[in-house]
Design a protein that fits this description.
Four copies of one chain form a homotetramer. The first copy, chain A, is of the alpha/beta class. Helices cover 28% and strands 27% of the residues of chain A.
């Protein structure tokens, strides 16, 4: 029977995997058990954020050393989903998801289940279009099957990392007679995230394939999945998928829950998702309970209507700071304040991921004291 | 008997005073009752933030029109303390502090008291030195007397806006044979804020004049005042002071309280200061109670030791986004989430203002339903 | 007979009009002779650049004082075209264009001619569409007539300041049932500049009204005018036009010339436009000749294909610095180096203004020594 | 007899060494001949610029593959000097310096000579102090000897990459009872560059060890070396030195020259250094001559007095864009415009490297047509 474990580790810089190195070296983690990474690096989260590529290169070199497989192969087997930008109180860190086999134990209740998948590379001209949506949906279904999750309602979080176009990729596609949706990289990242969210919604039966067209992406925000968390970056060419849910076919103390966030001030969603896991925040999680929290995953978005609860915000009009950096910093300030810990994954660009102007939060926590 | 009123108004841009114009035009506010403004404009909060000067110019023109005094005179009579930078969920707004006279009513308990003062201009070479501290302390004492507050413990918040040097001012001083402390404008702003905090601490008998030297500023962070809120900017030449406290010699429903914030995750301080005023946040203030809140004033600071509760933050190492913009966005995210409203004054640069790495929060609220 | 004069003045900050104040006070400039301002303020040049509004407010207050007309009226009579962003070696400054009447002198050759015009306000939903183009074209024709320039080839520079949408304006238009082209302010500024360039091209008979559709804007870059210089900003609601050319019906030592710039490295265009005016740069303009230069006006653009002469640039992929800030700084470095003076107007956003990826340069210089 | 060769290669991103890989794979370059790299990556050039570390890791992996040595060893043998920030028209690229042995040919004149050296690691508390200066001077002398350059006047360019403190390194040093000069990373980078420049000046007999104290660094700007080019970054712990000069003991068509730049507008220095190498720029280098240019190395600095030739600049007062990014973009615009090519190394932070407010330019070019 499979057991999922999650190690949340700090880094001194984007090329620093020393904590994982130590855990493998001392036998705490078996290299072969590592199935996915989700982390925050300290770049800007935009097109020119190379902290993600740097971390990924270093990670794959490390695993290559232990697994005796070429890094080029591992990068196609182990999703490494990074969100750049540790604005404000966020602390650069990465969560290592591991699976080990063990004798079935007579425990009650379902446990955290993990599944992963990779799609084929997405051509530049497909980014942000139905072909991209279909590609994501197929990969999500594969990952759910891989996790052995039987009921779609038991899926709580689907992380997808989607490729986007750069100016160079767009130019190459145009030279080849193709028509990318846009050659503006920041817009391309947004379209890619939209396609990812639609793909998740389709795979989770939340959205019928006939219920949208290409024009719905970044336009009809009534279409959304509160379980989709999509990143986009220049450093990937395929969609990389990590599915997280609960399953009676898995063992271990970890369990996951999620909640949509209605807007950037929705502290209630934070408190509620913790309560789902038996953790109180009055007003802050106690150190004992905080030690039970394995990882915190948040998506958020600057409200595109320019207001939050009726009051004007300035994130979208700021030429100096990218709007995603603004919102990540604000929402991370709120969530870290409730939990008392800056090691949280808060990722911007939540288009179609949870309510418009809001997003979602998922927490994995141990049902016993500590993370054992 | 004096009554203090506070109007929290929104602006569409830094030159938009239309809401105050309307309130004066319709008689809600008498122009002559306006004694101070504290607001957030949407600049960057740094040396080259001209949104503060633009707002101030527009405000003084408006008051000049109603009061029939030249703007040049009003700018020396009415403190207009602006903090630039509405990062994240903050909404550009300004609080107008008004004083009116009325017949004494047999109400119980003390009410919000307001006092203001201006120092003489501070020469560029004095910025951040003892002469600057003394200048602030004198002005604070004048403002306390002006407010009629008799016990220093009844002072809850002292806002000071200090001048700083620009490259040009520093060069002029050097050309005149003077020695400014620094010709780096961002450092000058920090020294100016330190001098302001020391000045407040001296005036409030928290710090003996003999207990520090010039070298203590920006160096000995055990020296701090949890009631000092200091801004610095190129657009002022004198120290401008607004003292807020409670006094039995004032009337009205408003009262103020404050709390130090231990660090950027100190949600407890936010909940506690609200509780001081009889407002619950479980986890968020109810809309009814939120309507009682007249204004929220926060100071914060990126922890200079590079860590928050043991976890590395990246604010001080970021060449792209100023550290003060980072911390304002994060703390505002937390406070706005508890209160459910982005119209909060969160100002960075809290050196010596509250605990190191933390800051302070003050709230003014009505003791009755609504703001009457 | 009319004589054009141009005063290039420095400012200490965006609200500093003291140099113009002094020129009017000492009689050098008659307030009533001021017909237009073109300047560089030290903001970011983006949607949230309020240095333009601050300067404009201060200018109009100053002129109001001398002309005894309300500022609200002057702002609709005197184009004040500001470009925010003095990246790199650029120095904040403004050129004051004045017209005075004098007895005809038997001088040879044509002289600098100036004409101005204002359109009606442009509704948010028209921005970047044909109605916007038509509105600009009409205003340009009015300004040419106003300048008394008879041959279109004698027009050398047409500056237009176009309004754009903010998030708030877009939301208001949508609420009113209108459909703005975009609610992304940065994109709106680009569309507004495109409409301005098309309008100039139409007015100068470079482009037939039937030769384009709405879809041509920001899409068909073969359509361009090497005499159009378009800015866009939140602080205007109408198109403001300043036409500059040479005319035998004007007197004075000043003359204007212009050249398209093929790309951001086109130093030849800079040298050539100076040569047109009898000024050598080997490699730099001599101080004597530099004193003859009244103003330098440049438009530029980050090449949208991502390459300059075959080499990749990174301006469009930079999430930290807006691409227009990048290109302004680079082209200003080149032009200022040739001229030996940082008081140059270099404005980004040259879509359809000169060759794609390049832009244009215009210089006004005295045909005699000095500017006398 | 040794021959120096220089290959200037482009990169698609900071982890892209494919051009060098191809040159080694096809035999154009022997891996063992690579002795140094000087390049521009597309980061921000500040403390949190990880593009340098990413490039370096990738380079060492590549060379490790060909040389069959561990990357950890190579990184201590081959200086890889990177400057982050390709503002404006600059194109990300790297110059590979190679040395090969060949039979002496009866050529006239001296040729490019290269020498390298590494110092021991510099403790955090030594950064920016005399111990740091001495460490650099020793390494420079070693590199000159290594290059076989006998006369100090034949040294034209000394590139040093110095370590700096981060917030974390400073905290660690303080915890160990040491006193770093500053714990502000950006200031530490400046002090490190100053120490590097002093070290070069000492090694080149331009500065007597007794002629300065610790207090002279970043203070007495009359001390400068027009041949020192210093970078600083978090990714190195030792001083890495590359000395470039001309020597009769070397063969080949390449030769180097340098000139101080008096200020950021000094186009004359650019034209003169090209003329030294027999290349005309009227106003731009011809494509044929441009093909002779092997590499262009520039250092520059925002004038700390706030003015360039009397006109105010705003680089030092900008809270949004780091001043070094401003100046690099401006000077690169000028130099690239003269040369007609954006593949130039322009590095900021020229404290004590060339005249105050200016810097230096060095060019390596072939004395024959093309780079053969």
């Amino acid at each position: 029977m499979r057991t999922a474990r999650v190690f949340r580790l700090s880094m001194a810089h984007p090329g620093d995997l020393s904590e994982l190195d130590r855990l493998i070296a001392d036998g705490t983690v078996r290299g072969a058990d590592v199935v996915a990474i989700i982390g925050k690096t300290e770049g800007n989260g935009g097109v020119n954020d190379f902290t993600r590529g740097y971390f990924t290169q270093t990670l794959m070199l490390l695993l290559s050393k232990y697994l005796n497989k070429p890094a080029e192969q591992l990068i196609r087997e182990i999703p490494c989903v990074l969100s750049g930008g540790t604005e404000g109180v966020m602390s650069p860190h990465y969560s290592v998801f591991c699976i080990s086999e063990a004798e079935p134990a007579p425990e009650a209740g379902p446990s955290l289940a993990i599944g992963t998948a990779f799609s084929d590379p997405v051509p530049a001209e497909d980014i942000g279009r139905r072909a991209h949506v279909d590609s994501v949906a197929d990969a999500v279904r594969t990952a759910i099957a891989n996790a052995g999750i039987e009921r779609l309602e038991d899926v709580h979080f689907v992380q997808v990392k989607c490729p986007c176009v750069t100016v160079a990729r767009a130019a190459a596609a145009i030279a080849a007679g193709k028509t990318p949706l846009t050659n503006d990289p920041n817009r391309s990242m947004a379209y890619a995230r939209a396609a990812g969210a639609f793909g998740v919604a389709v795979a989770l039966d939340e959205l019928a394939p006939s219920a949208f067209t290409d024009a719905s992406l970044l336009s009809d925000f009534s279409i959304q999945s509160p379980r989709a968390s999509i990143s986009s970056g220049v450093e990937v060419e395929s969609n990389e998928v990590v599915v997280l849910g609960n399953s009676p076919r898995w063992m271990g103390a970890l369990r996951i829950s999620h909640r949509p966030m209605a807007d950037a001030l929705d502290i209630g969603a934070v408190v509620d998702v913790l309560a789902d896991l038996g953790i109180a925040a009055k007003p802050q999680v106690s150190p004992t309970d905080a030690a039970r929290i394995a990882t915190v995953l948040v998506k958020c978005e600057p409200d595109r209507r320019g207001r939050i609860r009726g009051n004007r915000h300035t994130m979208l009009d700021d030429t100096d700071i990218n709007a995603q950096r603004h919102i990540r910093g604000a929402v991370a300030g709120l969530v870290a304040g409730v939990i008392g810990d800056g090691r949280i994954f808060v990722s911007g660009g939540a288009e179609h991921q949870g309510p418009d102007g809001g997003g979602l939060i998922a927490v994995i926590a141990s049902q016993k004291e500590g993370l054992a």
